[in-house]
Amino acid sequence: MITNALSVDVEEYYHSIEFETAFPGESRGSLPSRVEESTEQVLTLLSTLGIHATFFTVGQVAEAHPQLIRQVSEAGHEVACHSYHHKFVSRQTPEEFHSDVRRAKGILEDLTGQAVIGYRAPNYSIGVAQAWAYDILLQEGFLYDSSIYPILHDRYGWPDAPRFPHEIRNDGLRKLIEFPIGTTRVMGRNLPIGGGGYFRLLPVGWFQNRIQRVNKQEGQPVMFYFHPWELDPQQPYPFMPWYHSLRHYVGIEGLELKLLRLLQDCHFSTVRDVLGLQ
After folding, report:
1. pTM score above 0.85
2. Domain extent at residue 260
3. Number of domains observed in the structure of the chain
């Protein structure tokens, strides 16, 4: 049986691109935090199912809620890095990116007492022009990255990238593995089966069927992700343009039930386990 990778992007609801657009600058910092409540809900769900996941965690969140990150680690989940500031890599210089990931990695390792070997860029913001980031990740001791979504999208995506885990950097001593977000091939195109807004919008059966098809017909694991805030219908609903509101809030009410069905139907574990990394 193929084991798929289950990942959770631990960030505040207001870290989403929709909130960044509606609340520019530092104004989002005045919004109330909800990350503890929503992440604990995720932990309860995974504990009930006996599933471990990789929690890609924003450094600022870890600093503000250290006990939450310890709780994640003590429950047997993998803690990985999701940047410090949740700032797009495409908006940083190599020096700024290097400082950001080093700071976040150090915080997470201090809290968990374990090596942090995985990284995911906010909003999948490592593209062709940001390939320099892989060298920095390798230099900082990361063993894998999960920042590529091989689909065509208006905000991110690298549709021509390989769809499954592959070596993306090797300095002769160490190698960096890229584990892209899950896709399926339909009529010559990559379509999303990796979670996020697509999972909230589309029927759960699409994801169950297609993940199993990739497992059985292509013999490959699928990377699936979600955010704790996607299970939190009690989060604030500030005014924003309707199209931003639709993208952020669609499907939140029913997501936990859909997620439960998917996790019961397909086999999942941490990225570390799926890749066989120590």
Report:
1. yes
2. 4-275
3. 1
